[in-house]
């Protein structure tokens, strides 16, 4: 493979995780190439890809100088969470009772994505290749050589795979992964409600899936209905008013009647674990390294924490160390071993518990919720874990 333009680091994939890593390295001495198939664009109206960002990640984005540049009229703070089981189980979380300013922030993916790209385009140490796609890659002890689909060649000490759940970097590096499809799709849309949500996020564990309403400004909510494939197909094919009535009814009309604000979209859901987050001259971040059920709203939150950890290690490189230093990569893998593992198992377990039709499982989940709700020590601990990623 021919040698090409030389960098310290090549990031393949400029989604939220890859772009955040590039921006987090803005003060480093590293020369960076960012290869991305399609640069982000601002949504027309509201973007239906809406995520919950933990306060820990809002703080990370603040450190990157991104948070304060966002249009805050498009963000909503979650002050309360109301979680319901399928048989009178209930759990309530409150920022006020846990001594926190907010439990999470809800905002559009494109809002943060475009701001990260604004920042990295101004960065002196990043060269952006977009639209461009990774085609081939050879990894040796001396370095990594990449070929793009358009024939250009790049080489570097380290390649970061931030190229999402079907990562080509992961595949070319020979890092194994195991995938468990849930047989479910996440149906998403934004809806306008009759009544104000007052900063409350709702979640219902139902027989036909997990339904979440995430508060957006101005009586809007973003819904994620993680539904079995046949239910998802029904939700997608019904007409707008039937869909809205079904969503409102599934949530017990908690916010009155609803109307559709954006088209619907759906994403297949699966659990994906990798054999390792690193390989020779390779590190994986974001969905390339772990895919998780959206019921806990942690996917990109894990990706941001990967980016933060890897950037901190790369910023601390000694003058004689290269970016692909294996000891550094091992430190990264150790630092990120626990959190994705714990969250993947916890959300997977919850999903299984709530999708089981066994009467004992129904009893266990609803009694468990009610007991947890009566023990403020546990709800506060859970709240703090969700907010900071630490118990
Ligand atoms: C229904 C649903 C709801 C969700 N809700 C939440 C939530 O509330 N909170 C949360 O934290 N997470 C949530 N997630 C998860 C979140 O969407 C993902 O974790 C996040 O988008 C992953 O970001 P990423 O940058 O790692 O990967 P991606 O967003 O997949 O980005 C990968 C990038 O790599 C590029 N790329 C791929 N291959 C190549 C190649 N060969 N060459 C060049 N470029 C390439 C792609 O164009 C893309 O831009 C949800 C997911 C779903 C499905």
Which features does this protein show?
D-Amino Acid Oxidase, Chain A, domain 2; binds flavin-adenine dinucleotide; alpha+beta; eight-stranded mixed beta sheet; about 30% strand; 11 helices; about 400 residues
What does this structure look like?
It is a single chain. The longest helix is centred in the last third of the chain and has 18 residues, at 338-355. Helices cover 33% and strands 30% of the residues. Strand 14 and strand 15 (220-228) form a beta hairpin. The chain is globular, with a radius of gyration of 21 Å. The strands form three sheets. Strands 5, 6, 12, 13, 14, 15, 16, 17 and 20 form a nine-stranded mixed beta sheet that branches. The protein has eleven helices and 20 strands. It has a domain at 67-109 and 183-269: D-Amino Acid Oxidase, subunit A, domain 2 (D-Amino Acid Oxidase, Chain A, domain 2, 2-Layer Sandwich), CATH 3.30.9.10. With 391 residues, the protein is an alpha+beta fold. The site of flavin-adenine dinucleotide has 32 residues, from helix 1, strand 3, strand 12 and helix 7. Flavin-adenine dinucleotide binds next to helix 1, strand 3, strand 12 and helix 7.
Helix/strand layout:
Blueprint: E1 5-12, H1 16-24, E2 32-35, E3 50-53, H2 55-63, E4 76-78, E5 80-84, E6 90-94, E7 104-108, H3 109-121, E8 126-129, E9 134-139, E10 144-148, E11 153-161, H4 168-172, E12 177-193, E13 200-206, E14 209-216, E15 220-228, H5 229-237, H6 240-250, E16 258-260, E17 265-274, E18 278-279, E19 282-284, E20 290-291, H7 299-315, H8 326-335, H9 338-355, H10 359-374, H11 376-388
Parallel strand pairs: 1-2, 1-11, 2-8, 5-13, 11-19
Antiparallel strand pairs: 3-7, 4-7, 5-6, 9-10, 10-11, 12-15, 12-16, 12-17, 13-14, 14-15, 17-20, 18-19
Helix pairs in contact: 1-3, 1-7, 7-8
């Amino acid at each position: 493979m021919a040698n090409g333009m030389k960098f310290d680091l090549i990031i393949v994939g400029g989604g939220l995780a890859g772009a955040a890593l590039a921006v987090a390295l803005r003060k480093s001495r590293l020369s960076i190439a960012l290869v991305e198939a399609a640069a982000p664009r601002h949504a027309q109206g509201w973007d239906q890809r809406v995520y919950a960002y933990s306060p820990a990640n809002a703080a990370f984005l603040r450190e990157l100088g991104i948070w304060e540049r966002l249009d805050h009229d498009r963000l909503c703070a979650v002050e309360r969470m109301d979680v319901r089981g399928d048989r009178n189980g209930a759990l309530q979380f409150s920022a006020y009772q846990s001594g926190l300013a907010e439990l999470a922030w809800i905002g559009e993916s494109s809002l943060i994505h475009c701001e990260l790209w604004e920042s990295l385009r101004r960065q002196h140490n990043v060269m952006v290749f977009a639209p461009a796609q990774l085609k081939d890659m050879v990894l040796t002890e001396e370095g990594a050589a990449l070929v793009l689909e358009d024939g250009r060649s790049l080489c570097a000490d380290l390649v970061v795979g931030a190229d999402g759940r079907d990562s080509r970097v992961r595949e070319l590096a020979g890092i194994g992964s195991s995938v468990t499809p849930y047989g479910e799709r996440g149906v998403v849309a934004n809806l306008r409600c009759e009544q104000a949500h007052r900063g409350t996020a709702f979640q219902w564990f139902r027989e036909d899936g997990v339904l979440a309403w995430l508060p957006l400004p101005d009586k809007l909510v973003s819904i994620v209905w993680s539904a079995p494939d046949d239910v998802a197909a029904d939700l997608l094919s019904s007409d707008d008013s039937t869909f809205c009535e079904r969503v409102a009814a599934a949530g017990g009309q908690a916010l009155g009647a609803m109307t559709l604000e954006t088209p619907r979209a759906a994403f297949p859901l699966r659990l994906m674990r990798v054999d390792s987050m690193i390989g020779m001259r390779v590190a994986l971040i974001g969905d390339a390294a772990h895919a998780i059920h959206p019921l806990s709203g942690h996917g990109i939150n894990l990706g941001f924490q990967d980016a933060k950890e890897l950037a901190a290690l790369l910023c601390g490189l000694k003058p004689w160390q290269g970016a692909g230093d294996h000891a550094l990569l091992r430190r990264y893998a150790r630092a990120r071993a626990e959190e994705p593992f714990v969250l993947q198992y916890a959300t997977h377990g919850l999903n299984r518990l709530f999708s089981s039709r066994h009467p004992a499982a129904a009893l266990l989940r609803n009694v468990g919720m009610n007991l947890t709700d009566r023990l403020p020590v546990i709800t506060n601990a859970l709240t703090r874990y969700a907010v900071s990623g630490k118990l």
